[in-house]
Amino acid sequence: MRRNYQTQKPDKKGKKNLLRAIIKTFRYEYSISFMIGFIKTGIDMLSPFLIQKIILFLQTPDVDNKDGYLLVVFLISSQFVSYMM
Questions:
Q1: If we measure between CA atoms, which residue out of 68, 65, 66, 45 comes closest to residue 56?
Q2: Cβ proximity of 50 and 74 under 8 Å
Q3: Which of 9, 34, 70, 77 is most exposed, with the fewest beta carbons within 10 Å of its own?
Q4: pLDDT tens digits, residue range 5-17?
């Protein structure tokens, strides 16, 4: 971080921006954590829709059981991945 702050060009007022140096130094860490958070949020938002699909599956009697098993496995695996993140 020191190298990014010391080699930074001054702005219009002649000051160096510490926030810009921090973001430039840790941009990979921030982008990785942002992507993990984005994926976790997507998985968390997917759960109610999967539960709704499972309930609709249980209400229709003439549907193949493979679809229901697939929905339940997908719900359990998504919750496991969300828990691990």
A1: 68
A2: yes
A3: 9
A4: 566 666 666 566 7
